[in-house]
Amino acid sequence: MRSLSDTLARLAKMRGANPPTSPVDDRLTDLGQFGSNRGELEAKIYIPKGLMPRSALVVVLHGCTQSAAVYDQASGWSHLAEDYGFAVLFPQQTRANNANTCFNWFVPGDIRKDQGEAFSIRQMIETTIARYDIDRSRIFITGLSAGGAMTNVMLATNPELFAGGAIIAGLPYGTATTVPEAFDRMRGQGLPSVDKLQSLLGSASNHKGPWPTIAVWHGTKRRHSAPGECQSDHRSVARRAWPSYPTRYRRNDRRAIAQDLDCGRWSRGDRVLQHQKHGTRHSA
Fold first, then answer.
1. Tens digit of pLDDT at every position of the chain (284 positions)
2. Please, are residues 148 and 61 in contact by the beta-carbon 8 Å criterion?
């Protein structure tokens, strides 16, 4: 078990990991009131001009030390929304909740269905659906690192809400319950067995299917989350959703992006995604 001094040192290092390098072009607006907000989160949104009724919604969760605007600027989601005609919702952490603006994916009271931050995110989604006439069959969620871990939380606790999700450099659901455990899991230490992860995932909701489509993205040279987390992550999800899912996974196959959950090296046409670097200003 890590000492308190070690944990504090890691938190301080994280706060200084990604200093802003340029002014942020904030294209987002406040969602406004969205319910009781038990998790005390903020909500930002981007609605392109001329958004058609029954459009799709993408929920985007930032990483530690980031804001919604910073992650949008680096990832380009609002520009994609303009190009393809969908709404984008950005839940945003506050420093009152977490000094490093990490979503609290390791706090039990924030990752259970209808509790804490998970409940606030669901309320934001429901408000957006009602306010902008969103098609319930086309709601997707994605997140980076701590946002990826919270994406896992939302997919585990509210699977019926989503058509699909993309977990980028995230962690499996329920793998940590304290800050020291969270740091250990990010380094690939003390990860629960696949059977334990399956049990945690199975207890997250009463949903019996159908299941959202899941894509898991993880680089092989991550500083904060070890590649082993990706293997634990996608196998625990896949085995619950598809009991007969194969135990061997294809790599370097264009079809893998749509059909398989994989980690590390991906082939996409003539471009290979082997090491996910921090072009999106990732921290943790």
1. 555 455 445 555 555 555 545 567 799 999 999 999 999 999 999 999 999 999 999 999 999 999 999 999 999 999 999 999 999 999 999 999 999 999 999 999 999 999 999 999 999 999 999 999 999 999 999 999 999 999 999 999 999 999 999 999 999 999 999 999 999 998 889 988 989 988 999 999 999 989 999 999 877 655 555 544 554 554 444 444 433 333 333 333 333 333 333 444 333 333 333 333 334 444 44
2. yes
Task: Report the alpha-carbon distance of residue 191 to residue 138 in Å, rounded.
Answer: 33
Residue 145 catalytic? yes
Cα–Cα distances (Å) from 240 to 115, 162, 196, 235, in that order, read 23, 16, 12, 8
DSSP string across 60-72: EE--TT--HHHHH
CB 101 within 8 A of CB 95: yes
Q: Which are the contacts of 123, defined by CB distance < 8 A and separation ≥ 6?
A: 34, 35, 36, 37
Nearest to 97 by CA among 130, 25, 156, 146: 146
- Catalytic-role residue among 55, 78, 145, 232: 145
This prediction has a pTM of 0.77
Measured CA to CA, the distance from residue 21 to residue 72 in angstroms comes to 15
Instruction: Supply the Cα-derived Rg of the chain in whole angstroms.
Output: 18
Q: Assess contact for 14 and 65: CB atoms under 8 A.
A: yes
